[in-house]
Design a protein that fits this description.
The protein has one helix at residues 3-9, and strands at residues 24-27, 31-32, 38-39, 44-51, 56-61, 67-72, 76-78. The chain is mainly beta and 79 residues long. The mean pLDDT is 85. It starts with a helix and ends with a strand.
Length: 79
């Protein structure tokens, strides 16, 4: 079984807030990436990790800044 097949066959991780891995989200306030670059409010990204039962999320951005940031749940909205 390939990695792609295994990944696609697993159940998505859904949180009480309704945000799951690979959901597209928008920032409600500025955040700082792991590299120290500020991502402005309104930027869109993809959830690539869920921490603490949905208390925070690892979000990957590619515009206007490229990078990952750990973002509190209350700073995100689903798109």
């Amino acid at each position: 079984m390939s990695f792609d097949t295994l990944y696609q066959s697993r159940a998505p991780v859904t949180q009480p807030q309704g945000l799951a891995e690979l959901s597209v989200v928008a920032l409600l306030r500025d955040v700082v990436t792991d590299d120290g670059v500020t991502v402005p409010a309104g930027a869109e990204g993809t959830i690539v990790g869920v921490w603490g039962d949905g208390e925070a999320y690892e979000v990957e951005f590619d515009e206007p800044v490229v990078g990952n940031a750990t973002v509190q749940a209350d700073a995100l909205r689903a798109i």
